[in-house]
From TrEMBL:
It is a single-pass membrane protein. InterPro entries: LDL_receptor-like_sf, LDLR-related, LDLR_class-A_CS, LDrepeatLR_classA_rpt. This is Low-density lipoprotein receptor-related protein 1-like. The gene is LOC118408719. It comes from Branchiostoma floridae (Florida lancelet). One of its GO terms (cellular component) is plasma membrane. Disulfide bonds join C49-C64, C90-C105, C131-C146, C172-C187, C213-C228, C254-C269, C295-C310, C330-C345, C373-C388, C414-C429, C455-C470, C496-C511. SMART domains: LDLa. CDD domains: LDLa (cd00112). Residues 1-22 form the signal peptide.
Length: 516
């Protein structure tokens, strides 16, 4: 459960979001796509809330509301009241604790029309994942015969040699999305997708308006950063730095961080309105902070005014208790130093709200079935980790430690770490298949290493077998490059970057003839 880490992670993510300066950008995405909140990316609607992976860099495509469980478009788990979109059924990931969403998939049609079923397995993927350049099927069947297939989205373009489909927004954007580079050819003669876009002078690459005059050379020749002091900022409400003319987003003005080199975005703050009435304005400096930074135990204002009078204030977000989320009340962890979040808790005689949950003996706190006998005491009295030898693991693929009965998922077997105290999860590894497809079985120890650890230049197997015969192996990632003599795989951005990733230096050869 590791609930104690949740507050730490949440606070870190908030701090990270403010440090990475992610602006709320409005992108004109096609109607069949979802516009990511803080980046200029468009994601197909079939990939939104698919529960499999985040397609937006900021993860906004997976910020989803809980569906109505009576809707015909959702799947309900067998043993509890959890439900989710049909797009998460037979997708190779167990979303239900009992795995009922992945049962009998070989016999079923894909749950949604247009979905693609892998030839060698029962896994279903959204149609937009076909011919996208990535092997989502273990057998690669979703990437076969792409040159003869139409793209799922009619507005998408195709790479010349491979037939891989890509968004027109990725044409002439300065990045080789096609392995043959055909998406970046003849850019000077191509119209930009929007009239507000800026066309780089030398390359013809198209730069969206919010990337002009932002202090970064998005054009190799720097033409997007010329004459900024005489230009209006491309979006209303943006602030223009006094000396450079660089434009910064309105919520970066008076936020306590100097985004302008001359600091002009942090001047005269006492006379400026905060971007939202929920924001807090520091008494002495006038700097604005979002509501979740008030009464959080940290002095965000230099004068500490954001932490004053907290006992008399309502918490800034509904459902919070003494500025801790209500889900952390009565969970067995003392978040408030005075223990008030664990007072007046429901009687231990009550049943847990969901079947299969375990009730802690002393506190009556309920923990999820997959947290019982997982090697971590979620009950303060440790009762969720007792009598494990008589308990069934949550899935037949799980491994049960011989002496303790603790259950571990398959990827923790034969990984070189003693997850079981008795080391039974690391026994007989040489005779076992690796639990996850694509993993490599070390020759002498039988330890399983991830596909991206093979031929990466690091000896992850103590015998070096994961680094043997690399010249004859394909790189795990089709976009990676190989060192000439060793066959070690490295990322494209490691080529001609001034650092020797290959022992023979082949990653830094012929750099004068290559464009960055």
């Amino acid at each position: 459960m590791a609930t104690g880490l949740l507050l730490f992670v949440c606070l870190l993510s908030i701090e990270h979001a403010s440090l990475t300066r992610a602006a709320n950008i409005t992108v004109e995405c096609p109607s069949s796509t979802f516009a990511c909140k803080t980046t200029d990316d468009c994601v197909d609607l079939s990939e939104r809330c698919d529960g499999f992976r985040s397609h937006c860099p900021d993860g906004s495509d997976e910020e989803c509301t809980t569906p109505d469980c009576v809707s015909p478009d959702v799947f309900s788990c067998d043993i509890d009241d959890r439900c989710f979109s049909l797009s998460r059924v037979c997708n190779g990931v167990e979303n239900c604790p009992d795995g009922s969403d992945e049962v009998d998939c070989m016999l079923k049609e894909c749950p949604l029309p247009g979905y693609f079923k892998c030839v060698g397995s029962a896994t279903c993927f959204p149609p937009v994942w076909q011919c996208d350049g990535w092997d989502d099927c273990e057998d690669g069947s979703d990437e076969k015969d792409c040159t003869s297939k139409e793209c799922y989205n009619a507005y998408d373009l195709k790479c010349e040699s491979s037939g891989v489909c890509f968004s027109p927004l990725k044409q002439c954007d300065g990045f080789d999305d096609c392995a043959d580079g055909s998406d970046e050819e003849n850019c000077t003669s191509i119209e930009c997708p929007s009239p507000e876009d800026f066309k780089c002078e030398s390359s013809g690459i198209c730069v969206p308006p919010w990337k002009q005059c932002n202090g970064l050379d998005n054009c190799i020749d720097g033409s997007d950063e010329k004459n900024c002091t005489s230009k209006e900022c491309p979006s209303p409400g943006y602030f223009k730095c006094e000396s450079s003319g660089i434009c910064v987003a309105p919520h970066w003005q008076c936020d306590g961080v100097a985004d302008c080199l001359d600091g002009s975005d942090e001047e005269n703050c006492t006379s400026i309105e905060c971007p939202s009435p929920e924001y807090f304005k520091c008494e002495s400096s006038g700097i604005c902070f979002p509501p979740w930074k008030q009464c959080n135990g940290l002095d965000n204002c230099i004068d500490g005014s954001d932490e004053k009078n907290c006992t008399s204030k309502e918490c800034p977000s509904p459902g919070y208790f003494n500025c801790e989320s209500s889900e952390w009340q009565c969970d067995g962890f003392d978040y408030c130093s005075d223990g008030s979040d664990e007072e007046n808790c429901p009687s231990t005689s009550k049943e847990c709200p969901s079947p299969g949950y375990f009730k802690c003996e002393s506190s009556g706190i309920c923990v999820a079935p997959h947290w019982q006998c997982d090697g971590v005491a979620d009950c303060l009295d440790g009762s969720d980790e007792e009598n494990c030898t008589s308990i069934e693991c949550p899935s037949p693929e799980y491994f049960k430690c011989e002496s303790s009965g603790i259950c571990f998922p398959p990827w923790k077997q034969c990984n070189g770490l003693d997850n079981c105290i008795d080391g039974s999860d690391e026994k007989n590894c040489t005779s076992k298949e690796c639990p996850s497809p694509g993993y490599f079985n070390c020759e002498s120890s039988g330890i399983c290493v991830a596909p991206h650890w093979q031929c990466d230049g690091e000896d992850d197997c103590s015998d070096g077998s994961d680094e043997a015969n690399c010249t004859s192996k394909e790189c795990w990632n089709p976009y990676h490059l190989k060192c000439k003599s060793s066959g070690v795989c490295f990322t494209p951005w490691g080529q001609c970057d001034g650092d020797y990733d290959c022992e023979d230096g082949s990653d830094e050869e012929n750099c004068t003839s290559k464009e960055c």
